[in-house]
Amino acid sequence: MTPGEAGPEGPALRLSAAWVAAQMRGVVTSGDGEREFGDVSIDTRTLKAGDLYVGVRGDRFDGADFAADAIAAGAEGVVVPRGWSGSKAGLTSGATSDVARSLRAAVVIEVEDTTVALQDLAHAIRKASGTKVVAITGSAGKTTTKEVTSEFLEARYRVVRNRGNFNNHIGLPLSLIELRQRPDMAVVELGMNHSGEISTLVRVAEPDVRVWTNVGEAHLGFFASLDAIADAKAEILEGADAATLLVANADDPRISARTGAFRGRVVTFGIDRDADVRASAIVDRGVEGTSARVTARRGTVEITTPLIGRSNLANVLAAIAVAEEFGVPLEDMKSRAAHLRPAAHRGEIVRLADGVTVVDDSYNANPTATKQALDVLTATSASRRIAVIGEMLELGDRSAELHAGVGRAAASAGVDVLLAVGGAPARALADGAIAAGMPAANVRYFETSDEAAAAAVALVKTGDLVLVKGSRGVKTDRVVDRLKAERS
What we know:
Elements: H1 17-23, E1 27-30, E2 40-41, E3 52-54, H2 67-72, E4 77-81, H3 88-91, H4 97-105, E5 107-111, H5 114-129, E6 132-137, H6 142-153, E7 159-161, H7 171-177, E8 185-189, H8 197-205, E9 209-212, H9 226-233, E10 245-249, H10 253-256, E11 265-270, E12 277-284, E13 290-296, E14 299-305, H11 309-325, H12 330-337, E15 348-351, E16 357-361, H13 367-378, E17 385-390, H14 399-412, E18 417-421, H15 424-435, E19 443-446, H16 449-459, E20 465-469, H17 477-487
Parallel strand pairs: 2-3, 3-4, 4-5, 6-8, 6-9, 7-8, 9-10, 10-11, 11-12, 16-20, 17-18, 17-20, 18-19
Antiparallel strand pairs: 1-5, 12-13, 13-14, 15-16
């Protein structure tokens, strides 16, 4: 879709049993091939009457085992492995006569692999919808970039985005299936923690625009080096043609080193290096957000956003590069940037009683992102700066070293009190801060976030600024919840 071009037209795509089976390379073994499905579900707990249930295999369960339950709950049809229809367990085990009749009447589509079948259906819907797809990957900032890009594009288009972090080999297809409503644009994120995963997602989404935000230490425990992570992220470049656009971070040398062979067009964004969309005259306002002069391909605009830190400014620049490609005026983006809000637990500013301010960045963490969050403390005036930092998971053999580096960064950022939470790497973080000059009495270590939460409630005083950040598995969001409960 070029600027000014009309979006997809026509009614929502019909999901008939015969069409679905053909896209899945499966066979309708029971029921009427003309039967239509309302939605697609993989969860019998949220399934609605009339849905198609796909029994995907997970790490701890096989969804095909619940196909009979799905039909009993009102599913119009089920997608199951080949041979399921002939299995006694699949059709009769524990079934009442009413359920047995429902099983015989339902549409059954048998496929070779239910997960691959879900992906194939999503890809077929994506192609048939006529929707333009923007796909975002990177070690950090994917969700924020997705949300900001969607917000900017909505100035001119009907836009859908994947829900939450539905960004893996199952979540992404479920998001793309929503394109049967034929929106103008879809903005999705592609996640990974192993090589080859982005390749699968790119094949399913076949994005018109690919955005690569950065390369960082996230999931370093699954890779030999940062360069290996960059190579895995570089799978975002696969399957492109001359019309495909790549929006790439000019400030990240690992990205720049891998984009030369891209078959499509490249538009860059950045802060420190020359780029097609670049920020200058930056004013860091701490918890109040950021201002900058943004020079893009079609002009220059002064932008102020409540999103905190330079990392979020880079996310906004990436979104501007995408939206400008689709003809959204810079002035419209300026207006929308002023009202952006972070996603839950991703840099939310929480104002509590007695002038206490909490930066809730507890959704996830890696060393680079945590250091950037500490920079926000430095740029903000406060009686005291308190950092509650949870262990950063999946960092492999370098975990202790990287945590110690974050501890040193906390000391350099002028943190007055540090609470480290987690296992041995969190102890290394605390030790790193002390070695860098923080008084030992101002550095405390806790095994759990519940313990840290109790300490934070007792510790925080009027006028304090509190940063809370950590990997999801450490549950540092409990610290935020406790502070809100005790001091709101």
